[in-house]
Amino acid sequence: MARLTLACIACAACSLALTLTSSVAVATVALAVGGAGWVSAWSGLGVSVQLASPRWVVGRTIAIYYALVDGGIAAGSWLWGTVAQTHSLSWALAGSAGALVLVAAAGTLFPLRERRESEPDPLEAFDAPTVALNLKPRSGPIVVKVDYLIPERHVGAFLDLMRERRHVHSRVGARRWTLQRNLQTPLQWTETFQTPTWTDYLRLNHRLTTADKELDERVLELHAGEDPPQTTLSIERPTSSARKRVPIPYFPRH
After folding, report:
1. Please, what sign has the CA dihedral across residues 142, 143, 148, 152?
2. Which CATH class for the 142-235 domain?
3. N or C: which end of the chain has fewer CB within 10 A?
4. Which residues sit opposite 181 in a β-bridge?
């Protein structure tokens, strides 16, 4: 992050120097400094995006990153070109220098969170549960229910952990995540979510990281049952039957 801030300042200094000087030598040095800042920012951002992204989504993350970068370059070219055409080239260079300084300040005031080594890479150890039905890879939707027994004194801490757990499962592909409390047995809580297919359920578990498993352990510490929380897998089936084609009666001619 510090390198990106310095790169923004270097590019801002380059633009400001080109605005204020008429010396070729000074402009050459300024362009060299600005070019170094540009290359450093370009390479640094690309590497940061790859390292900060989970392995299973890194391709899509890089695609979005380059789309935003290319779009930003096009928008910036149009903006500062319009300023140069409407006012002057000096105005455009000074404005871009000011914008770069604001970007550097924003990066200092709102730094990116530190990357933890356990976050990007998913766990490899996951054994698919045994099921009695012959599921196809595209069978689904799969409904997952996890039953917990939580004493009243731990409800607050449990809800806090469940908020984190909802974020984790949404990140790795879960849909329709809900948390329910049994009205007849308030001690029992049920976490429910869905995946579109059986393959998506398997992928979801492979995408969980070490940090996510640590969250599961913290939830397990609040569980009051002697046995671990019970996980139930179901497949959703529609009750409406397919519309049958009604045969057209045939009346022979006499």
Report:
1. positive
2. alpha beta
3. C
4. 189
The predicted model scores a pTM of 0.58
Residue 32 is predicted with a pLDDT of: 92
Are the C-beta atoms of 7 and 100 separated by less than 8 Å?
Answer: no
- All structural domains of the chain with their residue ranges: 2-109, 142-235
**Tokens 């084609």 belong to residue:** 245
State the Cα–Cα distance between residues 240 and 87, nearest whole angstrom: 67
Nearest residue to 229 (alpha-carbon basis) of 113, 150, 125? 150
Q: What angle do CA 36, 90, 103 make, to 5 degrees?
A: 50
Angle between helices 89-109 and 58-86 (to 10 degrees): 140
| Rg, Å, the chain Cα set | 29
Helices (DSSP H) in the chain: which residue ranges? 2-20, 24-52, 58-86, 89-109, 155-171, 198-207, 210-222
Structure tokens at 169: 């499962």
Average pLDDT, the chain: 85
CA dist 87 and 158 (Å) reads 60
- Asked if 204 and 167 count as a contact pair (C-beta separation under 8 A), the reply is no
According to the model, what pLDDT value does residue 118 have? 44
- Kindly tell me if the per-residue pLDDT of 36 is higher than 80: yes
Convert 17-47 to b/e letters by CB count within 10 Å (16 or more is b): bbbeeeeeeeeeebeebbeebeebbeeeeee
Kindly state the tokens that stand for 226.
Answer: 């002697």
